[in-house]
Design goal:
Distance between the termini: 41 Å
Structural class: mainly alpha
Shape: elongated
Largest sheet: none
Radius of gyration: 23 Å
Number of strands: 0
Strand content: under 5%
Number of domains: 2
Number of helices: 7
């Protein structure tokens, strides 16, 4: 070993030192992100209409699922129709979101987690509402399909597409993404 490497100037950091450095950098990044969120959004929640639409879709889907489970013979057609309409609307909105995201990605570094799951791109209240609404859609869809399998209730599992697309719409319109580095 050379004397320089024994003195510590050229040595690799230990695992503990490297981990401490990563954690310090993570805390710094988190503080910067929090400050940027506060500066951009403050106490207001932008895109309230998107949040309301998400909860309305969830409510309509849930209200269609209840009678379909209670009396499948009479109400399953309405549940099927609601499921298909919400799925098709979700697919159409998904295509619009992808086009808007492609245009915005020229200037901003956007990732899938930030775009569709609002990770680091939306304030916590927005995340709670949009992801909570989508979570309810998933629970209702899986619950309905599990309670009466191999019936048109299985189409309900396609409905959370609208929740995911609405998350993407909020993120592409209002989300905070870092500028793309050149």
């Amino acid at each position: 070993m050379s004397p320089a490497s024994k003195s510590g100037r050229d040595r690799e950091p230990t695992a503990a030192e490297a981990r401490a450095e990563v954690e310090a950098r993570r805390e710094t990044d988190r503080a910067e992100r929090t400050a940027a969120m506060e500066a951009r959004f403050g106490d207001r929640v932008p895109g309230r209409a998107i949040i309301v639409v998400s909860w309305v879709c969830t409510a309509v889907f849930t209200l269609a699922a209840i009678p379909a489970l209670v009396d499948p013979r009479d109400a399953v057609a309405a549940f099927f129709a609601v499921s298909v309409v919400l799925f098709v609307a979700g697919c159409a909105l998904f295509m619009v979101v992808l086009l808007l995201a492609a245009a915005r990605s020229r200037d901003d570094a956007m990732g899938i987690g930030g775009l569709f799951f609002l990770a680091g791109s939306a304030p916590v209240p927005v995340q709670r509402h949009l992801l909570g609404s989508m979570g309810v859609q998933v629970v209702v869809a899986i619950g309905a399909a599990a309670l009466d399998p191999f019936t048109p209730l299985a189409f309900g599992t396609l409905v959370p597409t609208i929740g995911l697309a609405l998350c993407g719409l909020w993120a592409v319109r209002y989300g905070l993404f870092p500028a793309r580095s050149t």
